[in-house]
């Protein structure tokens, strides 16, 4: 896979688009699309070549998320979480854990999810209230995660839990079939991203041996800030850029095709032209800043963090603004769901509140630029 963005767009048209409407209308997880994501190699995008993967990095991750979101934000979001979890294993997993899980992804089309947020700590997802009691080789976990995208569909869940080292956390892999793991599927009633299955996960005396811990004891924070943050935050930038571009495509197409009795179209009206221009401007800028952030991040450049934070904040706000303008262009037809714009606007609203939220990241960006400590 050498042209991930273009191949991702082609894939999305063939294997994501047919399910996008149902995904939203019936709050249905895009299982068929995920089966094909496995078949056609996208689930192994970030798995190193030595394990049979494609060995790609942050830039290709962003390209795939962008390409998928130009067709379906929900599918792109679930896919993005999988890639982030894979990266934790790539960078910190033991050889045995990588072999087991990467083989399952490549040969059986399995995928991963992130079970980090809790009801108490909310957007500050790296603060965990769950308990982890160690007894020799085994650890028994109790607690509840609040919103787990791909819940019950993913085969492995990355879970942040307290370490035995005071004030530190660990990143664990919970297999779906772990005894004591359950999901409250009916609790996912999202405004948008409706196919996500982002519901609570109950952890009731789940016992795992230490081979399920990713990395050294107490290395959870390091993984959150060095791996999860860049891949997750850049991934969100790509998803909301793709959502905004999708809005542009639909609004511009509608303006060109909507005819008045005198034969003129919406596109002939100057105000509509200005709206379309503003949507295009913001969507293109979101894409450009996100791809530049991914490039800077992949090359370890000094200002990569500031670029990544800026891209994610800008793209999630741009998607909401593009949706507002696109709904105006779409008129009553868009309002009455003849166009998918209202769905895209609902999807876009997830952007500003997903952890770390746009507000929290705005504070982090200011701190990064003024040389202050980020928590
Ligand atoms: C579609 C969707 C999918 C999700 N999927 C997952 C998933 O797969 N895994 C997962 O772990 N979590 C997931 N989440 C959860 C998400 O990442 C957040 O943890 C969750 O939305 C926080 O909700 P809350 O009501 O507890 O927010 P709160 O923490 O109560 O925050 C409420 C508001 O206050 C603001 N705020 C809070 N503290 C500060 C601060 N210090 N400075 C500035 N502003 C602040 C926040 O930005 C937010 O706007 C998902 C959320 C959504 C919407």
UniProtKB/TrEMBL annotation:
Q: Which domain of life is it from?
A: Bacteria
Q: Name one GO molecular function term.
A: acyl-CoA dehydrogenase activity
**Cofactor(s) this protein cannot do without:** FAD
Acyl-CoA dehydrogenase/oxidase C-terminal domain: which residues? 238-355
Domain Acyl-CoA oxidase/dehydrogenase middle: residue ranges: 113-206
TM regions (residue ranges):
none
Q: Which InterPro entries does the record cross-reference, listed alphabetically? A: Acyl-CoA_Oxase/DH_mid-dom, Acyl-CoA_Oxase/DH_mid-dom_sf, AcylCo_DH-like_C, AcylCo_DH/oxidase_C, AcylCoA_DH/ox_N, AcylCoA_DH/ox_N_sf, AcylCoA_DH/oxidase_NM_dom_sf
| Keywords assigned | FAD, Flavoprotein, Oxidoreductase
Q: Which Pfam families match?
A: Acyl-CoA_dh_1, Acyl-CoA_dh_M, Acyl-CoA_dh_N
Please report the stretch or stretches of sequence annotated as the Acyl-CoA dehydrogenase/oxidase N-terminal domain. Answer: 6-106
Give the matching PANTHER family: ACYL-COA DEHYDROGENASE, ISOVALERYL-COA DEHYDROGENASE, MITOCHONDRIAL-RELATED
Similarity comment = Belongs to the acyl-CoA dehydrogenase family.
Q: Mind telling me what this protein is named?
A: Putative acyl-coa dehydrogenase
Organism of origin is: Paenibacillus mucilaginosus 3016
């Amino acid at each position: 896979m050498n042209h991930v963005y273009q191949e991702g767009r082609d894939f999305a048209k063939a294997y994501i688009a047919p399910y996008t409407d149902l995904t939203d209308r019936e709050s249905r997880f895009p299982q068929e699309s995920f089966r094909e994501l496995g078949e056609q190699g996208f689930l192994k995008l970030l798995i190193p070549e030595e394990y049979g993967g494609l060995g790609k990095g942050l830039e290709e991750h962003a390209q795939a998320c962008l390409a998928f979101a130009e067709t379906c934000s929900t599918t792109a979001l679930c896919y993005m979480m999988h890639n982030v979890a894979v990266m934790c294993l790539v960078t910190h997993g033991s050889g045995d854990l990588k072999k087991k899980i990467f083989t399952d992804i490549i040969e059986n089309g399995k995928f991963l999810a992130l079970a980090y947020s809790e009801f108490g700590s909310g957007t500050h997802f790296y603060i965990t209230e769950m308990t982890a009691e160690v007894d020799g080789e085994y650890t028994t976990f109790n607690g509840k995660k609040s919103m787990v995208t791909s819940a019950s569909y993913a085969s492995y869940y990355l879970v942040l839990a307290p370490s035995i080292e005071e004030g530190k956390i660990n990143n664990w892999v919970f297999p779906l079939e772990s005894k004591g793991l359950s999901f409250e599927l009916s609790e996912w009633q999202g405004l948008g991203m409706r196919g996500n299955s982002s519901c609570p996960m109950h952890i009731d005396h789940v016992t795992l041996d230490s081979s399920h811990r990713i990395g050294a004891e107490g290395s959870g924070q390091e993984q959150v800030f060095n791996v999860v943050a860049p891949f997750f935050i850049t991934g969100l930038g790509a998803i909301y850029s793709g959502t905004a571009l999708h809005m542009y495509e639909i609004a511009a197409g509608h303006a060109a095709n909507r005819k008045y009795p005198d034969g003129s179209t919406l596109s002939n009206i100057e105000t509509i032209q200005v709206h379309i221009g503003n949507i295009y401007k913001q969507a293109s800028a979101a894409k450009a800043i996100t791809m530049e952030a991914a490039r800077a991040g992949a090359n370890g450049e000094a200002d990569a963090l500031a670029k990544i934070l800026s891209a994610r904040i800008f793209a999630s706000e741009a998607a909401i603004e593009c949706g507002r303008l696109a709904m105006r262009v779409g008129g009553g037809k868009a309002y009455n769901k003849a166009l998918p714009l209202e769905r895209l606007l609902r999807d876009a609203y997830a952007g500003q509140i997903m952890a770390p939220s746009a507000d929290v990241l705005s504070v982090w960006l200011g701190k990064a630029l003024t040389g202050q400590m980020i928590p």
